[in-house]
Amino acid sequence: MSSNLSRRALHNVPSPNPERPSYARFIPREELRDFATWSPGGFGEPPGRAAQRPPEPPPGPTPEQTAAAADAARQQGYEQGYRDGLAALEGFKQSHAQQTRAELVQFMHALDAEFDGLHAELSAAVPRIALQLARQVLRSELQLAPQHVTTVATEAVEALLHSARHITVLVHPQDLPLVAEAAQETLQARGARLVAHAQIARGGCRVESDAGSIDARIAARWAQAAAALGSDMPWEETLT
């Protein structure tokens, strides 16, 4: 401890140059407390405060850089919009194609059903029209050429069995002289008797025998012909 006091006493010795007005002495390091190296810009700030100042923000973009960034963003948006538009258009085309295809298939099914209906109507109409025309032609033919009844009577008698006996041919009263004249040989060969019957329509006949009968009336023969065409149209027209 005496050494420390003597060292301090030496430090406090007055300057050997009495003419020098100022006084200076060497300050030991252990007597210093808070100190820091001085640097420009740190004047007036507490020690160590200058090193803690936040850095200055970087300079902002220039107008040219801002305009270039805007152009790039606009171009990118245009390209993205163009791609989205193409995708939407392609989706619409596919949807429209599917809808059109479905409508076409539905139309074809409806058309097939319509054709089937028309075919069925025609299938029923053609025989009916043909029978109507045939009936008109046959009636006209019987009026213009009543002698056809002789052919009908001859064929009916020849269709009987050769063993048939007691043959009777029934015809309309107006057809009796025609059959008697034209079919006389056939009737005599089979021993047939010719009889007028008012219920037999003109143009036809009915042959009866002990072996059976043959209905050669116009209405009966007409029903057979119509049935062969799948129709039940009667010979006589019905008034509705």
Q: How would you describe this protein?
A:
The chain is α+β, with helices and mostly antiparallel strands. The protein has a domain of 84 residues: ATP synthase, E subunit, C-terminal (hypothetical protein PF0899 fold, 2-Layer Sandwich), CATH 3.30.2320.30. The chain contains six helices and four strands. Strands 2-1-3-4 form a four-stranded mixed β-sheet. A hairpin with a 2-residue loop joins strand 3 and strand 4. Helix 3 packs across helix 4. The radius of gyration is 68 Å and the shape is rod-shaped. The mean pLDDT is 78.
What is the gist of this entry?
It contains six helices and four strands. It has 240 residues and is α+β, with helices and mostly antiparallel strands.
Strand order in the largest sheet: 2-1-3-4
CATH topology (fold) name of one domain:
hypothetical protein PF0899 fold
Instruction: Tell me the number of strands.
Output: 4
Mean pLDDT, to the nearest integer, reads: 78
What attributes does this structure have?
single chain; 53% helix; 4 strands; four-stranded mixed β-sheet; 240 residues; alpha+beta
Describe how the helices and strands are arranged.
Layout: H1 2-11, H2 63-144, H3 148-158, E1 168-171, H4 176-182, H5 184-190, E2 193-196, E3 205-209, E4 212-216, H6 218-228
Helix pairs in contact: 3-4
